[in-house]
Amino acid sequence: MGTYVLRRVLMMPVLLLGLVTVAFIVSRTVPADPLSTVVSERQLNNPEVVRAAEKRWGLDKPLTTQYVLYVRNLLRGDMGTSFRTKQNVREDLAARLPVTLELTLASMAIAVSVGLFLGIIAAVRRNSWVDHLARLFALIGSSLPVFWTGLFLLYIFYARLGWFPGPGRLDPRAVGPEKVTGMYTVDALIAGDFATFGDALQHLALPSFVLGWAVMGIISRLVRASLLEVLNQDYVRTARAKGLTERTVIVSHALRNALIPTLTIIGISFAVLITGAVLTESIFSWPGIGSYAVESSRALDFPAIMGVSILGGVIFLVTNLVTDMTYALVDPRIRLS
Amino acid sequence: MTAGVRNLETGLKLGRPTARVPAWLTLPVGVGAAIIFAWVIVALTVHWWAPFEPLQSVGTRLTGPSWQHLAGTDALGRDVLTRTLYGTRSSLPIAGIVIAVAVVIGCAIGAIAGLFGGWVDSFLMRISDITLAFPPILLAMTVTASLGPGLRNALFAMVVVWWPVYARLLRAQVISVKQQDHVTAAVSMGAGRGRLLVHHILPLSMTPILVNATMDFGQVVLLAASLSFIGLGALPPSPEWGSMISEGSVRFYEWWIAAAPGLAILTVVLGFNFLGDGVRDFLDPRTRRR
What Cα–Cα distance (Å) separates residue A92 from each residue in A66, A289, A295, B138? Predict the structure, then answer.
């Protein structure tokens, strides 16, 4: 176990450097000229303006120098200045990360609770219409593009029925709660402002359902499969033979072991969540990392795109590491092998 | 991604079930195959029977579904249904090309890594680790944005995103098949690496690749639509599902503009998911669902 964790942790810097290098290569050795984003089209013909811009953004130095500079600045926590917002990319990202975090956490909560429920009833009523319906529901969620689901839920529940508020994080007239974590629901609770909390929660409902629905299928399918496997084990038969009720057998005997493999998918579903967040945020006008990524790539804002990719990669790597380690911690069979 | 490999060490073919309807041909598999078949037919023949031209204004702008325009018309008065049907002509070939190229590249790299081992293996696998470390859409967006928006660049970006999946799958397969007795026997007969790979290892290693490729088809369709939705994939006015939904998202109250292309994506992705289950059960009876 010790060497396994150590090896994984030691691998991290290598992967991170690789990540940075890939992001750098991709965004610099490109046909699209980053200059065209900082200098207006007419000014591109003016050599003085171009030279000044190149100097300002460090584009006049050779690529290798730019790379070394970038890595060195990155180690100091400096991701450069965004071409588009003209602000420090790190500050941009720091302001937007809690927004995305709030959305992904809420989606994960929905996905896990509904996914668990669907997976369990599907396994218990295996091959019945309940099983098929649960599977179909989860499958439809993961087969629909989230931007489409978002659009239609907004149309139905906001525009037609008026049950939920429209895009955005709060009522347009409302003022956000005092910033502590940057997540409106949490901050409102800290401030004891229940009206704002309710407002933020209502705004959170649709986007997090859209995103949660997309991930639900992975969870429910795995819960079903592993529960079915566990239900065939001897100790479950013993529990049944002792005369325990089916509910006790499933909840306190089978489910515990069946949930272990489910842990791993938190890492996998995270990939889907990030992908989904990018698109969900742009539909629901959430000012998070996802919409930042979309706006930056539309504007060919390379420092910002690199910042987002690197942040996304780091989050991804860390989640995977934590998932694998938790898995090894929970299941002694993996730890010992 | 990792779950499918577990039961496939030997790759032995088990006896076919004797029932008249083979066990892999379940209702969902049949439905999936039918959906995909129907869409392929549409893609091949739509220019003969489509009611309208996909790029021309053929009616009043922004009218809802009617008998004349079953899925309504968009902001330029183009028929949404016609455009959706023509959308198969970009979505299906894109998915096919991306999967094919990613499989070829991924398998080549995976085979080299698994066959040679040592530092070659470590090096190639670290590259694939790094690629996999990016959330797929972010990597695809970065690559497409750098190359400039457009279908061809989006295609390239998706191959960049997808090859490591197959490289890792095939590598794992090659390593496990390499240790089997028949390979040792071939080595003792003096077979070279190339012959080993092509005749003794690859035939037993391709199952998970084929299964994954079928399943991934739908995912590629989704990613391609997402890139177009963001504005990095297909460019207007071409009838592509993602960019059609993007046009619809601007005209919020004219819901029908986005409805048809979204449903088209849903059916294609569902179809490939169902079909993938069938391919898996057909190629490897042991994974058959209980």
Answer: 22, 9, 12, 17
